[in-house]
């Protein structure tokens, strides 16, 4: 079958990793897969979308992303409608369109596409605040259309039980029982085959053998609360000896898009925070590392710090677990489903990151124990094979039932 993935901005985030992995699973199953997107920067994307693995068609990038710094959601809706129209006016229509993030395209796609799949990472209306009356008035029709159009999909996936509960609370007109939890996975074959760079090469600095590397991977966005990682590093002084603390470093790596004002501002804020807390020499900031660099720092780090509260699911903890690293994450959202407290890592509150970090920094054998347990848990519950089998069987069943 011909499956087209329709995604608004094919960059390097968790949502993008999910659709790329879903596309890989379908391609390996023998389906023809391609992408249609409204923006794709070869310098800010996953390898599979630029190395010829998939055909990527960019449409509507000339349409505005905002109007005088406002109306981002409205413009995203317009761009996705344009992309949907491109798909339906092609000579050869795909059998299935798999879309995510923006649901406004679904009623247009259903005019001539046999099956439309929607993956709900999180209701879009909850990703922005509506503090002013004007903003609430602006969002009112957008929120209504998001709910109605989401419900038109032939199949709706959510990324976690947490997101399913949020879906149920948000979309009260829709029956959440018809959604299916499809946990994301990672392209483990890439992890197994990629060349691992030494950290000295990536960070351009030499370290002694006793160095303990803490790692945070997330986009440079304020909602990710990356400042927690820097504050936890500074607070470690309370729990470690001077010698132990001298050997601890933090790597801050994440998606950075210079077109996004928040990315630029928050990156500079974090640099300022490190300076204010006196840990500038112990923090390394990496912006949009390549896929190979990302895997390399995961393999070479000792502990992953995952700071976002109420994260919808979170791909990075899975990546860390696959390479046998313990994870310390905020005790909320999706990580409560991917991390077993006191077994594969720690689920903590904001105030206790540094306390739990100190335990793992001091105890290498515990780090190895948690890491081994994390890899086993990943293989048992989140393997790429399990993800692929669930995705393919569900999509094919939907297609068959719709076209009987």
CATH class of the largest domain: Alpha Beta
CATH topology of the largest domain: Rossmann fold
Helix content: 40-55%
| Overall average pLDDT | 93
Number of helices: 16
Q: Catalogue the unreliable spans.
A: none
By CATH, the architecture of the largest domain is named: 3-Layer(aba) Sandwich
| Strand order, sheet with most strands | 3-2-1-4-5-6-7
Quick summary:
With 404 residues, the protein is of the alpha/beta class. The protein has 16 helices and 13 strands.
Describe the structure.
The chain has 404 residues and is an alpha/beta fold. The chain folds into two domains: 203 residues, Glycogen Phosphorylase B (Rossmann fold); 185 residues, Rossmann fold. Strands 3-2-1-4-5-6-7 form a seven-stranded parallel β-sheet, with helices on both faces. A six-stranded parallel β-sheet has the order 10-9-8-11-12-13, with helices on both faces. Helix 10 links the parallel strand 9 and strand 10. The radius of gyration is 21 Å and the shape is globular. The chain starts with a strand and ends with a helix. The model has no long low-confidence stretch (mean pLDDT 93).
